[in-house]
Specification:
This protein has about 270 residues and is of the alpha/beta class. The protein has 8 helices and 11 strands. Bound molecules: adenosine-5'-diphosphate and magnesium ion.
Amino acid sequence: MQSNQEFALIIHNVHKHFRNVQALRGASFLVEKGTIHALLGPNGAGKTTLLRIIAGIIKPDYGQVIAFNMPPGSPELIGLMGYMTQNTVGYQNITAWKNVTLFAEIAGIDKQMINEKTEYLFSELEIMNLKSRKFKELSGGEKRTVNLIRTIIIGDKLLLLDEPTAGLDLERAAKVRKLIQKLSKEGRTILLSSHIVTDLENLSQYITILHSGKTIFTGTKEQAIDTFTTDEKRSLENALLNAFDNNPSQNNLNSAEETQEGQLHSEKTGKSI
Ligand SMILES: Nc1ncnc2c1ncn2[C@@H]1O[C@H](COP(=O)(O)OP(=O)(O)O)[C@@H](O)[C@H]1O
Ligand SMILES: [Mg+2]
């Protein structure tokens, strides 16, 4: 398998089951450094499970994940990789500000740097007014914004964002997209899951579609449109609707397939591991 310098993440044939549920049964794709890559798929496709595996929270049954040439959970990844969970997590009785700085201190980041970055991000996402409010007093969208800020500070090189704009009002969602774009331009790698087409159209350069725990497509948005739509209905939304409708075990539309050698090969991108 390649451990190429140009990839922040190598995901190869990952399988994971929970009791009688096979959550992942062949997730494979590459995430290039400095790109925004969206992980898509219907509810239950395995997106959150895969992000938890990459973050080192749970282990796969089979297959490999390599982040910056290291296995998930490596101590060297602390401070490099930030993971924003789908569900909001925070200490309810401490302030929004402290909910960011405390986690960053635990990750070993320099205190002055934490304060500067927290100040900048609270101001950029316009939640300075929430600085001293207890976490439990914040709305769902406000809590998610605090979680995002914490993730950005902890993930100096790679951000794993599980539905980062879900539950945000339109204005804040637009600000979050702008910030993610800025971080990417500065060199950060971002892997996000989302159902929101605006996120995908305006943000991500690459997409990977999971269906029933398996990669059925990995490539650019344009390649997804070519693969999953007919000439009359060319749009990313239609491509995703068609892709989500497919049953990966019953058709051959898959553009990412296991070859006999157990290698992942994407016909569309020509990338292989
Ligand atoms: N901790 C768990 N215990 C049992 N089943 C789980 C657990 N986590 C996820 N699953 C199941 O695995 C499948 C994939 O879930 P998930 O990764 O959350 O999908 P997605 O994020 O794409 O909606 C679902 O069928 C879900 O019910
Ligand atoms: Mg999920």
